[in-house]
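Re: the pair you flagged

First of the two:
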Amino acid sequence: MKLQGRVALVTGASRGIGKACALELAREGADVAVNYRSHPEEGEETAASVRALGRRAIVLGGDVADRSADERLVRDTVRELGRLDILVANAARGVRKPFVELTEEEMAFALGVTLWGVFHCCQFAARQMIAQGGGGSIVVVSSPHAWVPFKNCVPYNTAKAGVNQMALTIANELAPHRIRVNIVEPGWTDTPGERRYSTEEQLREGGSRLPLGRLGTAEDIAHGVVYLVSDDASYVTASTLRIDGGFVLPRPSV
């Protein structure tokens, strides 16, 4: 097991990519703190699946947009599981509507979760990793939205662009502490969040038009995350791993 004896905190782990990351980390030996925002039963389900793999798991409710909640996430992880070696900053929210119709509240909501939530979680996790010594690993789940100006996605595009620059800067500052910080950019991935905006038929048709012929799965993303936090990537920091099946390749028909 690549992660035997390590402890991970995964935000937004009750479903989708976050849940898949929690389970894949557990399969490789990590104990996992499972964060959820508004679906405690799904958080408990993720934790039960982690325990079924023979690992310890705790469930931590909290909105990552709330700095005090993020401080508590890290503190409770350390209190219950003994330390913190890995942070997967996954939680994100977006608003899809035309720019001219956006409200200040909608913009603030998306930035609060998707940008500020990453800042708070990374800062508290980094402080803990520095205090305990021995290094650590942070993976920020970003998106091609960070650099592709998709229409009707100003809040999400803006937040993810900021997240990428933030992660790279954090990597620069934390390298002397042997804390590695990397970015994962999922492409079009079949998740519960994506199904809020697309029908089954749209997802199937969209996937068939991608270079590799299908949408990504949450497990595809989780495999990349596990690589980045493992010793296999011990010389990798400030890198971006795009897991998108060729989504961003030029395709005039898409």
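Second of the two:
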Amino acid sequence: MTVIMACFVFSGFGLTYLKPLATGALAPLPPAIHVHGLFYFSWMILLITQAFLVNVKNVQLHRSVGTFGIVIATGVLIFGALITILFARSVRDNPPADYYKLMYLSVVALISFGALFCLAIRNTHRPETHRLLILFATINLLPPGINRLYMVLFGLTEAPLLATFLTMDALALAVLIHHWRGNRRITAMAITGAAFVLVPQLLCIPIVNSAEFVSLTGALTDLARYR
């Protein structure tokens, strides 16, 4: 599961960020975007590393590295919020057609990842619950990578919201099935993690089309102090 999630991130951003960066074709970007990418990629690499350490029974090292993971997760949240604000500011005068949908995905990702990661840290003494919450938290970080991958592969000009949601749902369902096979029941924390993936999808269209969300995006735009 961790490798599959990393594939979406590194393929999506590999095609739209890493490849242009390596070939010199990437347009100049604010330094914060590169730092954001560093934290984001580091989280995915850490996720695979931590899963590997548990699989080889090196739990002590897994716990030690997990402390470093708190730093990376904090960086993901801080720079994710910063990038959301900078994006809103950069397209304020000429927003793309899917602007509000992208803003919604960004805001929801930060809230969901932050909440589930905090729960995961509080449940480190319960390995099964901790693993579930980390996986569900990471699923909420995947839309940017999934969007980019599908847009490049199929030549799309807007983020394929439905396809992205269905991909996230498939990953969440796989986690739930594995959890059920191991426990013969679905625990409350598993339901909580899945809800953070599914409920925002159900609320997407009503919220995106609301005047309150438009006002919120305007307020986020006003927070930016540099381009």
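The mean pLDDT is 94.

-B.
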